[in-house]
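User: What would this chain look like folded?
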Amino acid sequence: MGLSIYYFVRIILIWLLCLLSVLLHELGHALGYRISGGKAGWKVIVGSGPRMIGKSKYIFCLIPAGGYFIPEEEQETNQAKILLYAGGPVFSLMQAVLYGIIYFCFPEFVRPGSNLYEILLSVSAFLFYFNFFQCLFTIIPIRYRVVCRGFESDGLQIVHALKNKESQESHMDYKSNTDD
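Assistant: Here's the prediction, encoded as structure tokens.
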């Protein structure tokens, strides 16, 4: 395979797998939503920038960075919100572990020096780091000020739900103590 084709294949493969990684992250949110009793109506936007394909439930954009899970209705309980927001980072972490296993274990079964070996190593290493940092940057409780203009990370949404849960529990404890 020529050098230019080799790099083209690697770049296209990484781009497609990054879109898949973002999709799986967002589907992690969808799974948390469904487990917590959410209805079937939801939408996933994968990536950012110009829209490439998609009409109703799944929309794919050109740049494989960022994404949104949009439920039909907001979760009512704090436990349901925690499940919803934790699903994405958990799926990203599982993908990082999978690509880490591929990077560290599977190249032993492929002939070193072959094109398949080089592609497998470079793509799995890139996707390991991509998913690891996707998990890390979504689980850290922050408000994105530059890229997403005020959008709150999954971790910050979880912190809000935990604080709300604690305040509700302390309110219930206070109310039960005053009723005695």
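Confidence is low (pLDDT under 50) at residues 174-178. If you want, I can go into more detail on any region.
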